[in-house]
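Exercise 4. Each item below gives a protein and its sequence. For each, produce the structure-token representation.

Item: SlyX family protein (Bradyrhizobium diversitatis).
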Amino acid sequence: MTNVIDQVSSLEPPPVLHRSSRRFASFFALAAVSIALCAGAAYFWTNVQESFEKPSAREVVATTGLSAEDREALLGIRSEQQKASDQIGEINRNIGAQQDDLKRMADQIEALTSRIESLQKPTVPSSVLLAPSSPPPAAPVPRPAKRAVQPAKPEGPVSVGGAPLISEPSTNER
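Answer:
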């Protein structure tokens, strides 16, 4: 029995246990990288805000070292940028107005469509609405036309022309 215990103790742990330490290390590395990225993003965000808050100071410093031609070119570029931003603002206002017009027209089309649909539906009289249990009146069934009553045909022999013939005296009468 001691041999079995010695054999079991001499065995290495299963490979599953080795992987768990690797998983822990990879998880720790991933967490460290995530924290570093968040810190870098926060630092970058604060520097970007500072650079946008003070652009005029950099521009003044940058323009002092430029020649007169470069300054004029820079002023021309700035004026063109201002014109472009004004044009973009005007275009955005026009787009907004067009969208408002489009929405108004869509609402009008919707109202007209519902009105057309309501006009196309047959109108139901209020008496039918009050008594829905009664069946609708049946369409009148055409009756065959009555023939005029013809006079009874005379009994006995009839001539070819249609006039009644005088019947021969019966033997009883003689």
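Check: Residues 123 and 129 are 11 Å apart (CA to CA).
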